[in-house]
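dude i think i finally got it to work??
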Amino acid sequence: MPDNTGKSEFTFVVTGVELTKDQEERISRAIAQAGALALGDVAPRDALPVRLDPKIWWYGQPKDVLVRELQQFAAAEAGPVR
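look at this
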């Protein structure tokens, strides 16, 4: 697994507008998705976004054990594959 000690944080501030909690969450998700897309081939192929808070997202490479657990969960949810 690659070295995961590098860390970058980004902030997006909006003023002059009142947003509902739903709007804040939707905008936060859109910013996280745009950031992940902007990383392109810089990020590991198996990097995942994880919501920590309605307005805070983590994007990175989870530990192998978490990926395996997620794959097992997804396989159980998907059911038999044809």
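The chain has one domain: 21-78.
im so relieved honestly
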